[in-house]
Design goal:
two-stranded antiparallel sheet, binds zinc ion, alpha+beta, five-stranded mixed β-sheet
């Protein structure tokens, strides 16, 4: 496909994210739903994994006395490695939103509506970028991870590596052995004489 055909196809796809606010604001309480599945590439974002190709958009625009409230979420299919054991995982990353758009901004958090067509593409782009930047999940809530010494996957087997944090009382014993190595300990200086 030629670059110009590609960009006009993108323009047509992104037009589905434009909402006629003149019509919507005429009557508070009116709602307009937007349910679309669009290619992430349309937003000029590079996907970090092969599964993240499309974004499922489910937004609702509601006309309120304050302006147009946009709620809902976007969902992106993701894949990557479990952050503990590095097993391949697939999941759906969902990013919710709740934004207020106003013709005359009176709410500090509101976004200005510049024309009668509210373009939700920037919002969807931001939400999609968040879905793609999300932290890698665990393969399961109780994933045991890899042994830091031998690299064995502790979900499958147990190894003999000593990785537990030792009790402080053992550390005191280590110190005693060290003192003995340096010379005979003086019983008078012992902090905790027996008996
Ligand atoms: Zn895991
Ligand atoms: Zn090990």
């Amino acid at each position: 496909m030629s670059p110009s055909a590609d960009s006009s196809r993108a323009a047509v796809a992104l037009r589905t994210l434009r909402v006629n606010t003149a019509e919507l604001l005429r009557q508070p309480g009116q709602r307009r739903g937007i349910t679309e599945c669009l290619e992430i590439a349309l937003f000029g974002i590079d996907a970090p994994d092969a599964d993240a190709r499309q974004v499922d958009i489910a937004l609702e625009c509601e006309s309120t006395l304050q302006g147009v409230r946009v709620t809902g979420s976007v969902e992106v299919a993701r894949s990557g490695e479990c952050r503990r054991c590095l097993a391949q995982v697939r999941w759906i990353e969902s990013v919710p939103t709740d934004e207020l758009y106003q013709r005359e901004v009176t709410d500090a958090d509101a976004i200005e509506i510049e024309t009668d067509a509210l373009d939700l593409a920037p919002l969807v782009r931001d939400l999609t970028a968040l879905a793609l930047a999300a932290e890698l999940p665990l393969c399961r809530p109780d994933c045991a991870g890899l042994c830091p010494i031998c690299g064995l996957d502790r979900n499958d087997a147990t190894c003999a590596c000593q990785t537990e944090i030792r009790d402080d009382r053992w550390a005191a014993l280590d110190q005693l052995v060290l003192d003995e190595d340096l010379g005979a300990p003086d019983p008078a200086e012992s902090p905790d004489p027996p008996g």
